## 1
Amino acid sequence: MSLKNKLLLAFYGDDFTGSTDALEFLTLAGVKTILFLQKPNQKDIDRFPGIQAIGLAGKSRSMSTSEMETELCNAYENLKSFAPNHFHYKVCSTFDSAPHVGNIGKAIEIGSEVFNQKTVLVSPSAPHLGRFCVFGNLFARMGTIGNGEIYRIDRHPSMSKHPVTPALEGDLTIHLAKQTNKSINLINLTTIEKGVSAVLEEVDNNQAEILFFDGFNLEHLKTIGSVFNQLANEKTLFSVGSSGIEMALGLDWKSNNVIANETAFEQAGEVSPLLVLSGSCSPVTSGQIEYALKNGFLEIPLESKAVVSEYQNEIIENAVSEIIRNFNNGKSTILHTSAGSNDPRIAETEAYFSAKGFSENEIQKQCSTLYGSVLGRITKEVLKAVPLKRILFAGGDTSSYAASELDILALEMIAPIAPGAPLCKAISDNKWLNGIEMNFKGGQVGTADYFIKVLKGEKL
C-alpha cells in the first residue's frame, strides 16, 4: 500500500478543545480528517470516503493515572488497529499536566508499551499558537492570537494560576520528570537549526526513553516533521505534543506531494441566536463574556448548587426555560459557571465539596465532571426544543464532559474561526443533533470579541 493510500495519522486528544485544534490543522493542511467522539469501528471509518486521518476526542487531561490506564489502553489499541503511519497523543499547547491528573508521563508509558517503542518523541512547540520551546523551556503568549505578551510558562498570568494544573516549572524536561521514571533527553535549537540530517544523527545516538524537540518557528516544525516522517517506516510512530505535530507533519507531507494543496474555506456566515456554554475560569474567557454582554448577549449565571444532586433537575429545567425564552426573542445567551477566577461561585463550589471530605485534587475533578455534565444536559434539552444551529463550548475540561452528554458520533471542520478552534459540524444519527455547528475553545483562545465572531461566523 502506498503512503498516499494509507491512513496518515490517528490522534487521541486529551480534551475536546485540544482535539478540534488538531482537527483544524490537519484539515487546513489538506488532510481529510474526521474527529470521532467515541471509539470508531471500521464501519464508522467507511462512512467517510477518502478519509486520511482520524482523531478521538478524549478527556484524559482531567483523569487520574488509574483512570488513564483504562482509558488510554483501550483508545490506543482501538486507533492502532487502523494501522496509521503516525499516532499522536495530543496535549494542550501549554502542556497542562501534573502527577495526579492528566499525567503526560503516564500517557507516554502506556503508549511506549502499546506501540512497542523504546523512545517516545515529544514536540511541544506550536509557534502558530504563540507557543515556543527553547532549550527545553516553554514560552506562551497570553492568548493564542494577537500581540499578547509572551511569558515563560511558569510566569504566565493565567497558566501559572490554572485551577487544576498550575504551571510551576518552565523546563518541560523537569516538569515531565515529576510524572514518570523514564529517562529524558532533549534535542535543542542548536541541533534543530542544523537541519534534518543533524537531528536524525542525534536521534540515532540517543539512549533516553523520552526525547524532546525544541521549536521556535515554522522552519523548525518542518524539520521535525521530516524527521518524524522518516522515522515512521515499518510501523506506527508514536509521538506526544501539541497541534504543532500536525502542522510539522503537514509541512513535510506538502513538500513531498503526499497531500493536496491547503484547503480553502469560505466564512460560515451569521447564525443567530448563538448559545454559549462556558465552564472556563480563564481571564481570557472572562473578558470575552464581558464583551459579549456589552454587545447584545444575555447571560445566565449557573448556580453553584448545580453540582448538588438534589438541586440539579430544578436548575437544569430553569436554565432550559430561560434559554428557550431568550431564543424565542432572538437573543444569544451565555450560560456560565464563572465569570473569571474571582467569581464567588468557585469558592462556594469548593466549600461544598470540601465539606463532603474531598481533597483539593478531587474537588477540581468533581467540578469539571459535574459542571460539564450539567451543561451537556441543558444543551441536549434545548436542542430538542428549539432549532438551534450553532453552539460554542468554552473551557477544555468542562466541554469534554458536556459534549459527552450528547450523542455525537463525529465532528468535521467546516470553517476556521481562530487558530486551534475551528467551527465544526456534528455528525449524529439523531435528527435534532445532526448538522449542528459547534465550536470548542480552550480558555486561552481568542480575542475579546470572540463570541461575536463565532455568532457572525467570521474568522479572527
## 2
Amino acid sequence: MKKVKMGVIGAGGIAYRRTIPGMLKAKNMELGAVMDVVGIEKIAKEFNVAKAYTKERDVINDPEIDAVYIATPAYLHLKHIKMSAEKGKHILCEKPLCVNLKDTREAINICKKNGVFLQEGYMMKFHGAHQKIKELIQEGKIGKVVYIRAQLSCWYPPIKGAWRQDPKKGGGGALIDMATHLYDLVEFFTDEQIRYVAAITNSQVQNYKSEDSSTTLIELTSGTHATVDCFFCIPDEASKTRLEIYGSQGSIFTEGTIGQSEGGVVEGIFGLGVSGYDAKQSKDMLRKFRNVNFRRINPYTAECEYFADCVLKNIPPQINGPKNSIHIAEVTEKAYISYRTKKILKIMS
C-alpha cells in the first residue's frame, strides 16, 4: 500500500506524547523524519526514525518527505506553513492554526497559492464516542438538540518559557488553547455553525499573562444554545471533562471522551418528550439512562489516516480544512472581543 511519508516539525510536546505514536499506527502514513531544537536524537531513537534534524528547513527541503506535521508553538505556525507550502509540502498543522484571524487567512492563502493541502489538528471529532454521538443525533434519537455543554479543564501552573502562558506566543490562554476544540466539536455534533458568541475570559488563580479562565455562551444557526467552559486553574482530578447534550426527546452524557484519549463513558436516555405536562415536576423520578457502546479509535491515528488519504487521492481535506479554520478563528477572535466590549457578537464566516 502506498504511504505518505511525513516529516514532523516540532517533535516534542503533543507530537511526542500523542500524534507521533498515533501516526505510527496509521496504515497509509510513514514517519520519515523528525525535527526539534532539543532532544531530537532521543526522540528519533525512541520512534526508530533514521532522520533527525534540528532545523525546520532540513525537514522541508528533504526530497523524500511528502508532507509535514507542524506542532511548534502557535506563533511559529505561520512561518512554518509558509516555508512548507513554498516547497510544495502538504500540511497537517496543530491547532490553533495561527494566533489570530489575520494570520490564519494569510496561511490559507499561501497554501492555496502554492497548491498544497492544509488540515488543522482538531482531532476530537475523530473520537469513536463522538462519532457515535453524531450518529445518534442524526438518527433523531434525542429529537431537536436544544442545549450542549462541553467542559475541558486542567491544572496549568506557571512554567518558565511556556508559550501558552504568553498571549503574544499562543494568541491567548484557556480559550484559544482548549475552548476552540469544543467550538469545533459542538458544530460537528449538530452540523450547524456558531451564529452568535459571548465570552468571559479572565485570570482567577494563575499568575501569567494569558487567561486561566474562559466561559463561552453560543447560539447556533438553528437556535440551539451551548456553553463551553475551559480553565487552566482547575486540578485535573477535580474535572471529569463532561459533555452534556440535551434534546427534545432525550439526552446524551459523557465523561472522559473530551481530551487526548480514546476512552471515556457514554450514556443516554431516548424516546421521551411525548407525554403530557407534569404539573408536579417531580425531580426525584427514576431516570432510565443506558450505556452507549462505541468503537475505540485512536483519534490521532484517525486524523493522520484521513489526512494521508486526502493526499494520496489528491482530494482537499473537507474535515478540518481551510474553511473550518477561518470560521473557528473568527469565533475565537470575537469571543475575546465580546468580553472586552461586553457585547454578544455575530459570526460572519
## 3
Amino acid sequence: MSTFPIFLRQLLRTTAFSTALPLLALAQENAEPAASSEEEVMKAVRMHAYGGLEVLQFEDAPRPQPNDDQILIRIIAAGVNPVDAKIRQGMFARMMGTKLPLIPGLDVSGIVEEAGANVTKFKPGDAVYACLGFGTQGGYAEYAVAKESEASPKPKGLNHEGAAAMPVAAATAWQALIEIANVSQGQTVLIHGGSGGVGVFAIQIAKARGAKVIATASAANQEFMRELGADRAIDYNATKFEEVVKDVDVVLDSVAGETLQRSYGVVKKGGIIVSLLEPPDKAELDARGIRGTAFMVSPNASLLSDLSKLVEAKKLKPVVSKTFPLAEAAKAQEAIETGHTRGKIVLRVADEPKG
C-alpha cells in the first residue's frame, strides 16, 4: 500500500513523462565528485542511476555533516516504504530535482551523534526518530542528517526497529483520520487495506478515538486485524464489502480503482472518503451528499510527538513483519513491491543499544 499518497497517483497518470526520462543521462549529469582522502565515510545504499533493484548499491559514501539547524543521527534502523521503490524507478526525478548519487529512505531511528549550533531540543546521545525531507532523504545509511523540525524523541519502551516503522505510515493514518476526517467517538470507519503499512496504524488510531472499525484484507489477515482492534474484518476475496457495510462515517482507502468506486455507496450523507492514491470523483460525491479528498502526508516533529504519546499510552504499536540488513536493501524493496506485506519492513543498520 502506498504511504506517500498523491505523488504516486499523479505521477502514474503521467507515467509517460516518468518512464521516458533520460535517466542515465540524468545520472551522469549529476555525477558525484571524487571524495577527498580525508573525508569521513560510512556504509550506505546508493543509487547512481534510476531503474530496477540492481541500481541499489551497498558501498562507501561520504558521511554527511549537519548544518546549524540539523542533527547528525547514527542510524540504528530505517523504514522501507512503497514510495522508496517509486523513487528508485525515477518517477519523481524531475519533480524532486535531487542530484545523484542518492541515498533513499525517509524513516529513521537512531542516536544523535552531533547537534548543530542552533539546535536546542537535542544533544549527542539522545535517542530520536525522524522523517527525513522528501527532497533529501538519506535513510539507507549508517548516518543521516535531519532538521530539528523533522525529529522527535524516540517513543519510550519502543526499540529502534519499531520506531523506524512509524513516521510515514503512522503519520499518514493520523493525518487522514484525525486532521482531515476528524474521527470521533461513536463513528464508524471503514479501512481498506487494513493489514498494510498504513492500515495497521489506522485501525489502532481509529479505535483510540472511540470509533467502530471495519477493515478489509485477505483471508490470511482476518484474525490479525481483529487483534489490532478491528470490530469487523472482511475478506475482500470472499465478500463484497458494499453488500455487508452501509452508513459509515469515514472511508480510508489505500487501494483505489474499483475499491474506491464501490466505496461511495457505503458512506452516509455528510460522511467523507479519504483516498491515499487518487482523488475521489466529485460528481459521485455531490450526487450522494458526501465529502472526499486525497492528500500527501507531511510528517513533522509535533506530529511524531503525538504519535509517541499514543505508543507510550499503549494505544498504538508498530508491526514489523520482516527486517533485512542494510546491505540487503534491494531484497527489502523487492518485498515491498509485492503490495502484500503485513505491517512494515525495516532495515537493520546497527545493533540495538544496550540498556
## 4
Amino acid sequence: MADIRPFKAVRPTRDKVSLVASRSYLSYSEETLIEKLEHNPYTFLHIINPDYSDKQTEVKGKAKYHLVKNKFNEFKAEGVFIEDKKPTIYLYQQQKGEVIFTGIICASSVDDYLNGDIKIHEQTIARREEMFKDYLNITGFNAEPVLLTYPDQNGVDDVLESYIKSRPEYEFTTTNRSIHRLWLIQDENDIQKLQDIFEKVDTLYIADGHHRSASSALLCQQKRKENPHYTDSENFNYCMSYLIPESQLRILDFNRIVKDLNGLSSEEFIAAVSSTYQVSESENSFIPREKNEIGIYLEGKWYSLIAQDSSFNRNHIVEKLDPAILSNNILSPILGIHDLRTDKRVSFIDGTLGKEALEKSVDSGEYAVAFLLKPISVQQLKEVADASKSMPPKSTYIEPKLRSGLLIYSIE
C-alpha cells in the first residue's frame, strides 16, 4: 500500500518560475554556474550558493546550511516565492520533443521506505546520507523530489485528464528545449481518488534520488526521537516525490571512459579482454544489441564484445547485468579499477550525449578507451530491487531529470 498525501508547496510566482527553477547544481560546470549566478538574480542556485551572492569566503558544512536557509527566507520575504493555502497534489508534465512524462508530485510516506514498500536498487553512502540529513534539518526544506515509479494503474489518467485540458499554473521552456507544465490538484474528491488508487499499489520503486530518500528517513527517525509524542501528520514523516508510471520511465545507457590501459599496449589489452569476451572489429555505426554485448572504442576503432557464458553467473540477479560483467571481467582485473565511486581514472558519459561523445573523449587523447553499454530495462531494475540487491554504480541514467526550486516541501 502506497501512502501519499497532498502538501502546501512553497513555489515561485508564475512570472518568475522560469528564472527560479534550475537543474541540479551538480550538473553545472563551474563556468556555467558563475554565469548563472552573475546574470540571474532569481535562480534557485543563489539559495544553494549563498556564500557566492554575499561575496563571502566559501563556507562549508552546517555553517553553509544556515546561510542557505537565510537566503531562502530572503527570497520568500522578497515575494519570489508564495505558499499554497490548500493541501495540493501537483500534476507535473515535462516534454522534450515527442517524449512526454506526466506524473504527480506529492508527499510519500517515509514509513513506506523504512518498511520496504518503496524499494531501492542502489546502495547509498552513509557519509552522504548524514550530510543530506543535516542539510534538510537545518534548512527545513526539500527542493527536489525523489523520482518514484509504479506499475501502471487504471484510473490515474482519468483524474489527470481534465486538468491537462485546462490552462497550467506554469508553462515554460528551458534552454535544453524541454517544456515544463504544472497544474494544481486541490479538489478534495480528486485527491481522494488518487490516494485510493495508490493505496492498492503494493510497491513503489526509486528511479532516482536514493540519497534523498535515505536522508529523509534518517531525519524522520531523528525527529521522532526528539518528539516522542509525534503523530503521522508532521511533515517530517513524508518526503516530496514525483510519481510516474513505469511505462513512461526512460532508462538510458550509462557508459564508461578510462584514462589509461593500466600499462598495457592496445594489443595486450585486446588479448586480455579476449579471455572472457568474443571480440570482433565493427563498423563505426556499431551499436551493441546482442545479449551480453557491449562495445569498446580504442585507437579510432569500434569493437563488439560478447561475454562468454563461462565468464559470469547467469543465475545471479546482478552479476548477469552488462555493467557488472564489465567490472568483473575488464575494469577490475585488467584495468585495476576496483571502485567506480572513487577511482579517478574512470568517468561516465550518459546516453543523451550519444556515442560521439565517447569517440571524442578517446580521440582527444584525454582517455584511452571507452565502453558503450546497452540500457538497463525497467524490468531488470525491478528485479534487482525486488531481490533487495543493488546495481553497480552508474548503471542507469534515468529521465526525466527534475528541476530544483520548482516546488519546495517544508519539513518544519
